[in-house]
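SAMPLE LOG
Freezer: B-3
Tube label: C17
Construct: single chain, 113 aa
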Amino acid sequence: MPAEPAEGRVELLRINLKELEVASDVDLDKISEQMDGYSGADITNVCRDASLMAMRRRIEGLTPEEIRNISRDEMHMPTTMEDFESSLKKVSKSVSKSDLEKYEKWIEEFGSC
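STRUCTURE (predicted):
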């Protein structure tokens, strides 16, 4: 039985986040619900942007010299739910509902590959 679209998005989130530390408040199911209609590439972009948010917070307001002097341990900050919510506001889905409807109509008329 094929996975539900939401389950597929959760799995894509897990794959994209396997190398990252995420905060305990991160709810992949909730994030997945907000990503309805997002492509795999869109999900990857959201994860990448969210993972950079912690670093952006850490260096905000610092001079280039201060940034260079931050140790690797000090840069270590987990990605939070807030990071994902901010990224979802910035990274929109690349495929519109009308594009999907056209594709589905084409499949109905001509069949799949």
